Amino acid sequence: MDAPMDTFSLPPLPEYSLIPLPSLVPPIPDKLLTLLLPIAAYWILSMIFHWIDTKDLFSQYRLHTPAEVLKRNHVSRWEVVRDVVLQQMIQTVVGTLLGMTEPDDFYGKEDYDVAVWARRIRMIQKAIPRLLSLVSINANGLAKNMAGSHPILAGALSGGVYPSLIEAVTLSNGDHVSIPSFATWEMLAAKAMYWYIVPAIQFGLAILIVDTWQYFLHRGMHMNKWLYTTFHSRHHRLYVPYAFGALYNHWFEGFLLDILGTSIAFKVAGMSTRQGMWFFTCSTIKTVDDHCGYALPWDPLQHLTSNNAGYHDIHHQSWGIKTNFSQPFFTFWDRFLGTVWTGGDVSARYERSKIAAQRLVDSDFSITNTSPSQSNTADHRPYQDALQEAKEVHSIPLASQQPQPPSGKATQQAAASREQVLDDHDDGGRQILIEEAAEEKEARSMIRKSNRRRTASSLTQSESLRGLRERVTMHGRTGGILGMESSR
Predict the structure, then answer these.
(1) Alpha-carbon gap, residue 459 to 455, rounded angstroms
(2) What is the DSSP letter of 176?
(3) Contact, 378 vs 358, CB < 8 A?
């Protein structure tokens, strides 16, 4: 309730009657729709990206090839779907309980609430004369001089006193009285506060809470060996993320990080049911987009913040698993606490993984003599030209393409990430590093064996690597790999 200071000089608040708010999509109640929309958004967006995968569309924007999805991941698609559905079942139960704590929604009080904000704006104006006096300005004298030409400005300078803003009303007993009214600018400001500014602050607060909650719990699960091997390592079976694997987690981790975190954000921010509906849905869409495996230049979600598919993909690699913890909206905690990947350009690492995975697919093909069209995976032939060009890295100077550990702080990050992988005994952590070491040795040997000089044609081949580099550098932005600093 507003303070009773000079209440007689304030415009009265309008009466109102509360009416139950109709469903946004009849006949589905809003609380039920709040449960259904995030799940629908998850699978619709995931299936769009899956269709893009299977049709081999926009391959120039892929972060990984189909061969890598097949050979580098340590979990089947069926297991991914099963665990995602389990998490969404838990999400539905928790959401139902959360909805039971929320009051029913009504409308009809909007004009009253706007008037309350207008009153607050009027009360704030009472501080103007006092504030101006601190810099030796006589607000009342200035207002008196301006009263004739600028009465509204004079009223604000005098502390919210508007003698001309009087409204005649008839009371229920037939008496006629004059009451103060609000200035037009006060009502416009009040409506902006009620309809736009306050909801934006609520969404911003909820985003801050979710980002903070997920960063510290996520980082904690990587720092604690038991938490990682017991819970979080399941999510990292996806070394090559794809869209419908975004919520592939241990069920307890999914509850703790995603479900509980967003529920707390919803409650603390004081959102309505419909605000929560859009907040939960947008959070889901952002999470799916971060795991989609594509750096699409026209995807607005990948440009609104620096936390995007390319940024999070580094976290899923064996050499970057202890970096880039931020999820799902912004990266300020990574930057503030120094956990951003600082190894610079990782194009050679990505190329090495692509070539190794393709060779495994080619080896399987030669052994089984099975046509790629009979495989359950997408046709890998569109990548043959790019792979052949990638194999010509020996024609590019050693310093620019040799896959070797970065220097400085990045060396510590890479070492800690590899130690994390070794901790995961159940999912073949040691074997993963053995395979990568062999790939690294082969890549270096391929470079050393070549004594050819760079020619015009080799420069053309080197240009072929730019496609990958640009896909993982925030679509051509400067500043190192994926928009990160090249060194720190």
Answers:
(1) 6
(2) E
(3) no
Whether the pLDDT of residue 289 is over 70: the answer is yes
Tokens 């608040």 belong to which residue? 13
Please report the sign of the dihedral spanned by the C-alpha atoms of residue 300, residue 309, residue 387, residue 360. negative
For CA atoms 368, 372, 376, 380, give the dihedral sign.
positive
Tell me how long the chain is.
Answer: 488
Kindly indicate the confidence band of residue 415, based on its pLDDT and cuts at 50, 70 and 90.
Answer: low
pLDDT value, residue 33 = 96
* Sign of the C-alpha dihedral computed for residues 68, 72, 76 and 82 taken in this order: negative
- Please give the Cα distance from 248 to 401 (Å, whole number): 34
Peptide bond into 38 cis (omega under 30): no
- Tell me the one-letter amino acid at 77: R
Q: How far apart are CA 310 and CA 258, in angstroms?
A: 21
- On the question of a cis peptide bond just before residue 328, with omega within 30 degrees of 0, the verdict is yes
Question: Of residues 182 and 441, which shows the higher confidence score?
Answer: 182
- How far from chain centre, in Å, is Cα 406? 28
pLDDT level of residue 97 (50, 70, 90 thresholds): very high
Full DSSP string of 35-85: HHHHHHHHHHHHHHHHHHHHTTTTGGGBSS-HHHHHHH--S-HHHHHHHHH
Quickly state the pLDDT bin for 392 (edges 50, 70, 90).
very low
Q: Say if residue 366's pLDDT is above 70.
A: no
Confidence of residue 375 (pLDDT cuts 50, 70, 90): very low
HSE toward the beta carbon, residue 472, CA cutoff 13 A: 23
**Percentage of the chain surpassing pLDDT 70?**
72
Amino acid at 193: M
Tell me the C-alpha to C-alpha distance, in Å, between residue 220 and each of 215, 232, 424. Answer: 8, 10, 16
Residue pair 242/291 in contact by the 8 Å Cβ criterion: yes
Distance between CA 73 and CA 79 in Å, rounded? 12
